[in-house]
Amino acid sequence: MKRHTARPLVFFFRLFSRSKLRSQKRAAGFLSLLLFGMLLANSGAIAQSELPDFRQNAIPPETKPDTRPATGTPNQATLPATVQLKPLSPGQYVLEFNRSPVVGTRLQLRGIYDESRLRFTRPRSWETKSVKVSLRFRHSPALYATRSNLTVLVNGASVGSVPLNKPQGEIGNAIYDVPISLLQDYNEVVIAALQNNSPTCTQDPYDPSLWTEILPDSKIVFDLAPRPVTLDFSRYPFPLFDELSLSPNELAYLLPSAVDEAWLTAASRFQSSLGRLAQFRPIDTRLVKQVNELSPGERLVVIGTTQTQPILKSLKLPLKLQGDRWLDETQKPIADDVGVLMLTPSPDAKSLVLVATGNTPAAASKAVQFLLQSRDRQIGTGSVILVKDLADVPTPDPRDWPGYLPVENSFQLKDLLTQANEPFQDITTRGSDAPPIEIDFRALPDDRFLVGNVLNLRYSYGPQLNPLTSLLEVQLDGLPLAGRKLDAVDGVRNGTFRVDLPADKIKPNSKLQIRFRLDPRERRSCNRAIDQQLWGTVHADTSFDLKRENMARLPDLKLLQVGYPFAAPQDLSQTAIALPQNPNPAELLLLLEVSERLGRLSKAESIKLNVYRADQLPAEVRKTHHLIALGERSRFPLPDALQSSGFNLETLFERRRDGAAIRTLPDVEGVAKQVVSPWNSDRVFLALTGQSSTGIQQLQALFEQDALFYQLREDTVLISANDAAVQANSPDAYTLEFLQQARQRTTLSEANWRDRLMQRVGGYWLLLIPGTILIALLMYGVGQAWLNRYPSQEKQ
């Protein structure tokens, strides 16, 4: 047993002595593995001790919130808080009927039944407490009181009626409460009059004694309490601009410490964009030097860096400054090419401040450009926007004018747009006295129509009408063009009516009216509902075939009413405005008014208008752009352009026209003169000047008020103010005098030479074949004469 047991032991020790090094390594590995296992066991025990025992106690231990400040990492960024404008004091707003162009000085209702519609909006910041309609009226003494009444409806719901029983000359008063639940953003008031002059039945519905007049001092009275407004770009242009406001939106620009091209161009483009958004709504614009000059509810626009707008350092803004550089939400400096947009309240919290800034002037301009491009600003939200990149918006074709006729000569009604910017569909009217179907038939400004323009009208109408007195009539700007008798007793489906359109009557502001005059087969003057089964439809596949060429004769200020040629293309990229080297406030306000008017007259995805001071206007821009120069005569930016024929303003209050020269003291008139550009005969130059700042102010009114602007004609206009007692916004407050100085010789066209050639040839295509044969014969004869002469010379 001992020998047997000793051998394995000897073998074991020998093996151990031979592999001592390997055994030590294995032992070290075994020990490290053992230590690692013990650590895992301890960590598992610790983890289990920290976890709650859900089998016995399902409530986890309470955790305390971390109150340590953010360290500036992206996960701990400081986001701006939601800010609201303080509401204004409650009050009362009175909306008088005479503010509507439908009313004017009077509103009359005639016939057995007549109604008139007035529309009004409800501002977004209003919380309406009560609404009342106050009517003042008088009516014909011939009306029978028990069968005549006046009814008021708001958004289709009746709010009250009053009998027409006043004696002759007496004015009636009626006040109706409107339920708040009926009000919407867009509202409609209908005033309907039922009038009879007989106790049984009025036989003649057109009796002139059937009338009621609504006096223009009738009104709608609102008791309101303004509510707080949240500052957020998701509803832009609100709260900067409220398209539902009943009063003109008030806007102020903060003047920078130094006016340069960056601020001029950015402010001009921004005002143009507001003009596009406003459309027909008025905007009151002014310039301020301090924030405390704002009135309650007024909006302030601050454009520029902290160097040009030092007031930014004192405003309470969502982002912070480090020296002159803006920091983002992580307290890191913003890149030099990133624009910053911020909405913040004024120090008294009663006015809104829009800030477009950055660490460089180019960044501030990029921030403004973001608000100009409709597709980009749709994704904006919050009170702070950092603009890193902008979409590249291509310049539209110079003849691509939305809302005008297509450039193609053959098109259909569905290719045109309604007032809501939607394609036309089938349109149906009902009743014997239905309003006409009105279509904007706006020719492009450089369209010149030839003979042979045709409208192929497709229409339908129903049965039960009188075939002897019913007709279909087509009018252009109120001028009857053609009519057709509707004599099918059972009605017509998809009828066709060819109408010739006069070449000299189609204008850039033309409207086409299609009226169905439907008379019921059995007339019952006492029954209004007898005509509601009568209907007429104009189909969307109505087609037009036009013959036209593209040219415009300039200079002509009448074309400026539609923006031509400065709005071609519609992004204003071919227009530049020049100002004096140091423009004064009156000249800056005129710049904003001109920019706003150009915005109202154009539609595009972007705005690329440029503004320069006199010494900064590049020579290349003079040659390639349409120019608008404005300023007082003594500091006019381009004085050489004023040395043209006709009427001219000279220095020292001197005026010249042809051979006459006079001096006027004082000279307070404003002058707008359009000439062919002296640097390019295919471009136009518009001069807006005056001998004093008063004349510049007259020009501001010319571009601000529609009643004055849409009187423009000839090539020169002189504007002067009348009695100071007349309200400034009244068309009677100013006098316009028009002069035609230059002969309209320049023909301007936005079409390329190939299109113009095809238009020329297309107008005389019948002569094309014989003309080609004649030219070929002439060339053949010339060639034969030359060949016959050549051999004779060789013989000699």
From TrEMBL:
Q: Where is this region: Disordered?
A: 56-77
In which domain of life is the source organism classified?
Answer: Bacteria
Predominantly, its location class is: membrane
- Membrane disposition: Single-pass membrane protein
Q: Where is this protein found?
A: Cell membrane
> A single GO BP annotation from the record?
UDP-alpha-D-glucose metabolic process
Q: Which Pfam families match?
A: BcsB (PF03170)
Record's keyword annotation contains Transmembrane helix? yes
What GO CC terms are in its UniProt record? Answer: plasma membrane
Q: Which UniProt keywords apply?
A: Cell membrane, Membrane, Transmembrane, Transmembrane helix
* Membrane spanning stretches: 764-787
Protein name as it appears in the record = Cellulose biosynthesis cyclic di-GMP-binding regulatory protein BcsB
